[in-house]
Design goal:
Shape: globular
Radius of gyration: 20 Å
Distance between the termini: 32 Å
Structural class: alpha/beta
Strand content: 15-25%
Strand order of the largest sheet: 14-13-12-11-7-10-9-8-15
Oligomer: single chain
Largest sheet: 9 strands, mixed
């Protein structure tokens, strides 16, 4: 049994991961820490876990094998490095860190200690992602020319269910794009098969908050292909949408129903739209983390994509701040 501590309940998904850990046959939650002690004590009590007010003391405990990091985003670098140096396996909410330099610090600590790191990129496991990857691998769309992925909700309007800390630019590192837009960003990068050389981004502030609640990023590729990433906190009925267009066909998902449609010219498919079946969801990132710990393997693809995600988010923030297209730079190895 892998004994797990939850490090902070700052993030809205902390409770979700705690439930997943409780429900997994290979893990149990034994402890918790929080930068807000009162919140941490209440959450630990609800989980039947021990609350430790001192993070350093918690990480020294031989009774803890791994940690779930759901701290403020700007604390990821320090908390994950400390956990790795203490020999604790790390499962963390995205983004891995706020900058490529912080990612390098984290990866160095993980490599030195030999612990297992996995970042929560859950939509990689979904059936629509698997099926889209199969279509692209079969070249049914020809050369990909444009990918557009949109994800939006109403967390900043109406009942305003997003917690106030998600609008704190220092703690969160940004707004709609770095939180919700992470998913469209890593999917767009995945479907386009690599990193762009340039990126431009524009942020909107519909509700007047300090962080953006409406965002678009445009990824520019040397081939001429484009990636369009869209995210928002101000749209109650915007469906999760994937579009992949190429020289020989197009793929659509969620426009608006959760169906995967393909129209392709090669192999006699003509002009008809075909609905493709969706595979069952693969094991999610938490289950993958547990497997890597049990089998002694490394989440190589997950980590590489997570570092690319931070690199892209850093570029988007620089572009939105300056109003210019910026060079993305090389991804961290």
């Amino acid at each position: 049994m892998i004994r797990v501590a939850v490090l902070s309940f700052w993030h809205v998904h902390a409770d979700d991961y705690a439930r997943e850990a409780q429900g997994h046959p290979g893990t149990e939650i034994v402890a918790a820490w929080d930068e807000d002690p009162e919140r941490g004590k209440a959450k630990a009590k609800a989980l039947g876990a021990t609350f430790q007010a001192d993070l350093g003391e918690l990480l020294k405990s031989p009774d803890i094998d791994g940690v779930i990091v759901t701290t403020p985003t700007n604390a990821h670098r320090d908390v994950i490095v400390a956990a790795a140096e203490a020999g604790k396996h790390v499962f963390t909410e995205k983004v891995l860190a706020l900058t490529p330099a912080e990612c390098r610090d984290i990866l160095s600590a993980v490599d030195r200690s030999g612990v297992k790191l996995t970042v929560s990129l859950p939509r990689l496991a979904d059936g629509y992602t698997q099926a889209t990857q199969e279509v692209l691998a079969d070249k049914r769309l020809g050369d990909v020319t444009l990918v557009r992925v949109r994800l939006s909700h109403d967390g900043a309007v109406g009942r305003r269910w997003l917690p106030e800390q998600f609008f704190n630019p220092d703690e969160a590192g940004g707004g709609a794009l770095i939180d919700l837009g992470c998913h469209p960003m890593y999917l767009t990068r995945l479907f386009l098969g690599g990193m762009p050389d340039r990126l431009s981004a524009s942020y909107g502030h519909v509700t007047g908050r300090a962080v953006e609640d409406n965002a678009v990023a445009l990824l520019h590729y040397p081939s001429g292909a484009l990636g369009v990433v869209e995210a928002g906190f101000v749209n109650p009925h915007s469906p999760f949408t994937i579009e992949v267009h190429g020289t020989e066909g197009s793929l659509l998902f969620g426009t608006p129903e959760p169906k995967l449609l393909v129209k392709s010219n090669p192999q006699g498919r003509g002009d008809a739209w075909s609905e493709l079946p969706l595979p069952e969801r693969a094991p999610g990132p938490f289950a993958q983390w547990v497997r890597h710990i049990e089998e002694g393997t490394v989440a190589t693809d997950n980590i590489a994509l997570a570092v690319d995600l931070t690199t892209l988010m850093d570029a988007a923030n620089r572009s939105a701040k300056t109003g210019r297209t910026v060079q993305v730079g090389d991804a961290v190895a």
